[in-house]
Amino acid sequence: MSNVLSRKAEHKIATGVIGLSIMAMLCLLIYYWQDFVQYCFSVQITLHRYLVLYLLQQNSQQLSGGLMLIVGSFIYGLLHAIGPGHGKFVITTFLATHREKLQASRLITLSGSLMQGVVAVVFVVVLAIMFNLSTGDLSRSRYWIEKVNALLIAAFGVVLICRALGIKLRLFKRGRQAACGCGHHHYPAEHALSTGWRNAIWLTLTIGIRPCSGALMILVFSNAIGMFSWGVAAVMAMSLGTALSIIVLASLVHYAREWMIAANSRRVSQSAASAAQLALLVGGVVLIVFALVLFNTVIPVSANGDFITAGC
């Protein structure tokens, strides 16, 4: 009996320490948020300049330039995913409110990141190459795509709130509660809370429909100097780097969520329905607030092209 009590006490202490640590990290992040964003922006500009330099070296028949372009683009994707961004926020909120399988979470993250690269390539091919639009028109198109992306995130938040309130939507299937025949409602199993391919597609679109600004910059510049194929290779390397970083984040969120459920299994099983409802409701509200902030802070249209804003 004493061993059971000591284990419960250890679980409570560990949960309290982790909770306080997370609260402290959030407070520090909020306090230094502006400095953090500014630092990320300055680092991004520096990396943009290096990528342009490597493109120019490759254009001058320096083979090392092409290799450094691909490696540098991959590192850019890794570091770009560390900074603030919509993809990380959406996938973190989703995994915190849905007990999705780890493999499915990784596939969604990978597909969304790769889609960002594909959308950037299609964006430049259609608008810059096929229709020969000006850099100002490209900036305006990018501006409206980012606005639509914010609306998609808000719509996904509305879906979560509707599910929390019991409002059925045909597009999304609700997970079933697990039953053991004992008359009690336990926390839904992982397979029961899998959101299905419809939610996976929506989440992939929400992450991937907004092309990375660095990818657009490198594609527009590579097209201008006649090296578009190298620009495409660089963008896909960026997408793989971003995918790797966000997959690591998704895995951490998955294991943290499962640990919290295991550490509080008895309390969670007693209030599974209300806990799931609350998680969905909070997640939906957070996504809507984030979408509003994103909608109102989209980089303005630049008549000279976004690559000027990117510091190139």
Notes on the structure:
The chain is mainly α and 312 residues long. It has a domain at 86-212 and 242-309. Helix content is 78%, strand content 0%. It is built from twelve helices and no strands. Helix 3 (63-82) runs parallel beside helix 9, helix 4 runs parallel beside helix 9 (228-263) and helix 5 packs across helix 7. Residues 171-194 have low confidence and may be disordered. Keywords: Cell membrane, Cobalt, Cobalt transport, Ion transport, Membrane, Nickel, Nickel transport, Transmembrane, Transmembrane helix, Transport. It is a multi-pass membrane protein. The chain crosses the membrane at residues 12-33, 63-83, 104-130, 150-167, 200-221, 227-253, 274-295. It comes from Pantoea wallisii.
What's the SSE blueprint?
Blueprint: H1 2-31, H2 33-59, H3 63-82, H4 86-97, H5 102-130, H6 135-164, H7 196-208, H8 213-224, H9 228-263, H10 265-270, H11 272-296, H12 306-309
Family: Belongs to the NiCoT transporter (TC 2.A.52) family. RcnA subfamily.
Subcellular location: Cell membrane
Protein name: Nickel/cobalt efflux system
Number of helices: 12
Strand content: under 5%
First-residue to last-residue Cα separation: 67 Å
Element order, helices and strands? HHHHHHHHHHHH
* Total number of beta strands: 0
Structural class: mainly alpha
Protein name: Nickel/cobalt efflux system
GO molecular function, one term: nickel cation transmembrane transporter activity
InterPro entries: Ni/Co_transpt_high_affinity, NiCoT_RcnA
Keywords: Cell membrane, Cobalt, Cobalt transport, Ion transport, Membrane, Nickel, Nickel transport, Transmembrane, Transmembrane helix, Transport
